[in-house]
Amino acid sequence: MTDTQTPVEPLPAPPAAAVPAVPQERRIVTAIPGPRSQELHARRTAVVSSGVSSVLPVYIERANGAVLVDVDGNHFLDFGAGIGVTTAGHTPARVVEAAVAQARDVLHTLFTITPYEEYVRVAELLAEHTPGDFAKKSVLVNSGAEAVENGVKIARKYTGRRAVAVLDHAYHGRTNLTMAMNYKAMPYATGFGPLAGDVYHAPSSYPYRDGLSGAEAAARTIGWLEKVVGATDLACLVVEPIQGEGGFMVPAEGFLPALQEWCTANGVVMIADEIQSGMARTGRYYASEHFGWVPDLVLSAKGIAAGLPLAAVTGRAEIMDASQPGGLGGTFGGNPVACAAAIAVFEAIDEEDLLAEGRRIEATLTAGLERLRAEHDVIGDIRGHGAMIAIELVQPGTAETTKAPNADAVGRIVSFAAERGVLFLSAGTWGNVLRFLPSLRMTDALIEDALGVLDEALAALA
Ligand SMILES: Cc1ncc(COP(=O)(O)O)c(CNCCCC(=O)O)c1O
C-alpha cells in the first residue's frame, strides 16, 4: 500500500487546558494600586506611550469568571468585562480549551490564501444568529472599528453613494473614518485630523432628556437627514441599538424600525453597530431584537471570541456580495484561533443558556438600582437591557428638572469602588453615566455585594 493510501490516524486529543479557578469574591489586601503594580507602572511609563491610558492602574495577573486578580493579590469584581468583551466570563474553560487545541493545529494561514473550516463555521453561526430570515453572508476582521470601516465600504459599493450618517452620542472606533463618526473629539480625535469627510451626525433618541416618542424622534432624525444630507447621496446609516460609550441610551419604542423603514424606502443601507450590545450582552443574541429591528448589516466584535481579536460584518447576501473579489480581506481577519474561540462562545451561549443569565442580571441589577434611587437623589435615570445597564447621575435634586450632568460623582464613585474591590466604568457624552457591563457569570450575590459598595459610595458623595 503506498503512503498516500495509509490510513491517517486521528491526532491524539490534546490535554484539556486547565484553567486555574479563582475565588469569586472581592478581596483587597494592599493599597490600590499595590506595590508590585506600582513597580510595573514605573516600567510601563518608561516604555509605553503616554497616549495609552488605564482606568485602574492595577496590573492583572489572573482572571476567571467575574473576577480579576492583580499582581498584589487583590481580587476585583469586574463590572467592565474589558468594555463588554468577556461576556462569557474571563477564561471560560471551553473557550480556552478550544483556542489551545486550535493553536496546536494551525495558528495562521491567511484565509484569503488558503482557507480553513473555522472561518466558515463562524460565518454560518453568524448567519444563523443575527436578526433576519434571509440569506446572509459575512466577512471576518480583527476589531470593531475595522468592522465599521468594512460595513461602510460595502454599503458604499452596494449603493454607489458616499455619505455616511451616524447619530448623536455615537461611538464607532479610533480609525480615521470612525473617529469622524464619534460623539466627541476629546480624547479620540483631537489633534489627529484631518478626519474623513462625508460623515453626518443626526439627532438620536434619548428619552430621558428629549421626552420624545419613538415616532417623534424618528421623524426628527429623518427630517434632518433629508434636509442636511439627502437620501440620494446617503450610502448608510450606522446606529448602535443601545449606545455604548455615549451613555447606554435605550431608544424610544418604534424609533429604530421607523429609521429602517425610511432607509429601505430610500435605498440606504442601515447598519446595526452591535459591537458592544451584541453577542448575548443584553439578554438576546443581538440588542436590535429588543426593538423589533432587522438591520441590513450587523457588526459584531467584543464578546464574540471572549477576548481574542475577532470582528464581523454580517448581512443581506446581495449587499455583502457587492464587493469585487479581493476587495475584502486583511492579514489576520478571521484568525483560526480566534474563530475556534468564537465557535466555543456560541456553544456556551446556547448550551449554558447565557441569554437567560443576561435577563437574570438585568432583573437583579435594575431592582437594586431602583432601591438606591429611592435613597440617593443623584440617580437621574436607570436604563439598559441584560448585562448592559447604566445609571445617569445628575446634580442633587435635578433629576426631574434641569438634569444637570454630575460627572464628578461618577469619578468619585469609580475611585471609591476600586479601592474596595469593585471595577466600575464611566460613560456618556458628559461623563456622567456609570455603566454596568459584567460578564454573564456575575452571580446575584456578587451583584448585591457590589450594590452595597455603590450605596456606600453614593452616601459618601454627600
Ligand atoms: C459600539 C462600538 N462600536 C465600535 C467600537 C470600536 O471597537 P474596537 O474593537 O475598539 O475598534 C466600540 C468600542 N468601544 C470601546 C472603545 C474602547 C477604547 O477604544 O478606549 C464600540 O463600543
From TrEMBL:
Question: What Enzyme Commission number(s) apply to this enzyme?
Answer: 2.6.1.19, 2.6.1.22
Name the Pfam families on file.
Aminotran_3
Against CDD domains, the record matches this protein to: OAT_like
Keyword check for Secreted: no
- Which reactions is this enzyme annotated as catalysing? (S)-3-amino-2-methylpropanoate + 2-oxoglutarate = 2-methyl-3-oxopropanoate + L-glutamate; 4-aminobutanoate + 2-oxoglutarate = succinate semialdehyde + L-glutamate
Recorded metabolic or biological pathway in which this protein acts: Amino-acid degradation; 4-aminobutanoate degradation
* Tagged with keyword Hydrolase: no
Q: Name one GO molecular function term.
A: 4-aminobutyrate:2-oxoglutarate transaminase activity
Q: What class of enzyme is it?
A: transferase
Q: Which Gene3D superfamilies match?
A: Aspartate Aminotransferase, domain 1, Type I PLP-dependent aspartate aminotransferase-like (Major domain)
Cofactor(s) in the UniProt record: pyridoxal 5'-phosphate
Keyword annotations from UniProtKB, A to Z: Aminotransferase, Pyridoxal phosphate, Transferase
* SUPFAM superfamilies associated with the record: PLP-dependent transferases (SSF53383)
Family matches, as PANTHER family: AMINOTRANSFERASE CLASS III
Q: Which family does it belong to?
A: Belongs to the class-III pyridoxal-phosphate-dependent aminotransferase family.
- The protein's name is (S)-3-amino-2-methylpropionate transaminase
Q: Which species does the entry assign this protein to? A: Agromyces aurantiacus
Q: What is the lineage of its organism?
A: Bacteria, Bacillati, Actinomycetota, Actinomycetes, Micrococcales
Name the gene. gabT
